[in-house]
Amino acid sequence: MLSSIGIPGLILILIIALVIFGPSKLPEIGRAFGRTLTEFKTAAKDLTKDDDEKEKEKAPEEALKRIN
Known about the structure:
Number of helices: 2
Number of strands: 0
Radius of gyration: 23 Å
Largest sheet: none
């Protein structure tokens, strides 16, 4: 997605954001965006970790079913 924007497009977006929000709000917006991404990554890792744990728990049960 970002590859189609290019450097000039990013510069234009940053200038527009600077005009709209002002120089004092941009760092706050950046921090909030960073926290949101971090929370999303940890939630995604927790979901995949839970799925892996469930699969590990099922593996012995399925092996016993195959033996019987």
